[in-house]
Amino acid sequence: MLKAWHLPVAPFIKVQQDRLFITLWLSGESLPQRITLRAEEDNEELSLPMQRLRQAPQPGVVAWRGEISLASGQPRRRYSFKLLWADHQRWFTPQGFTRFPPARLEQFAIDLPDAGPQWVADQVFYQIFPDRFARSAARDADQDAVYYHHAAGREIVRKAWDDPLTDEAGGSTFYGGDLDGISEKLPYLKQLGVTALYLNPVFAAPSVHKYDTEDYRRVDPQFGGDAALLRLRHNTQRAGMRMILDGVFNHTGDSHPWFDRHQQGSGGAGHDPDSPVARLVYLLRGGGRRTTGWVMPVCRSSTIGRPAWSTRSMPVKTVSYATG
């Protein structure tokens, strides 16, 4: 029985400069004598030869490789495989083997990979966990205020900078590092040869690590708020440094208004399955209608080549962050 393996991801896909290399794995008896790669360039069909590789990727598996030029054509490339024997032929598509040429939407598809900003490759990055990097000399009173941490179920007080970690230390333990503290350390970072900063999440969130975002529209006041981020960006620009923010937009915390586990009045889906925002999240149910967890739609999809987030099914507003 002939078996074939291919997905439009590594190790079956490899990009080198302006060439896209596509590999098909086969195993079984009566292997094809020849394979061609059917591709499209500006909706024009191409039949490209594939070469059998000498090195086997796995025991009992043979690999064939073809290539497509990326110098021209549409950003999305569609392709399939034509397997030829002396007396018959078969096509291989995401649906498996077929005796007939596949329709356009029945083929494999890959979007040309985004190479990213050209400036990134030449940078020396320094990753910063804001709460533990540096505490500014002059802090706003709100930064040291006691507040109630819903997930921890208690009030949180900032620890002294040199206090040792305790057994209960975790996401609800704060030491007071902030964005102005980073600004004050820029001369030190520049002396190290740093040319770009990568900041762990800074948006409003109850935990110290800020991966449980509550509000993407404002910088956490524990870090100095929006004004502190603007000051830091201004200072990094003056120092000739780039800056990247860890956005974590594919998940939020349970205090985000869409979920509102702690019932802060946003009408989230955590306690009301019929909430208007319930369709924006996927709810994980326990017994009865009790909600035990949730995931964002972008995390739910596991189908390669299909959108994980559809703007047709939910209201989406565009928010821009100028960090540079």
TrEMBL record:
Start and end residues of each Glycosyl hydrolase family 13 catalytic domain: 127-323
Gene Ontology biological process terms in this record: carbohydrate metabolic process
Coiled-coil segments on the chain, per record: none
Highest taxon in the source lineage: Bacteria
The EC number(s) this enzyme carries: 3.2.1.135
Gene3D superfamilies noted in UniProt: Glycosidases, Oligo-1,6-glucosidase, Domain 2
Entries under InterPro entries matching the protein: GH, GH13_cat_dom, O16G_dom_2
Name assigned to this protein: Maltodextrin glucosidase
Lineage summary: Bacteria, Pseudomonadati, Pseudomonadota, Gammaproteobacteria, Enterobacterales
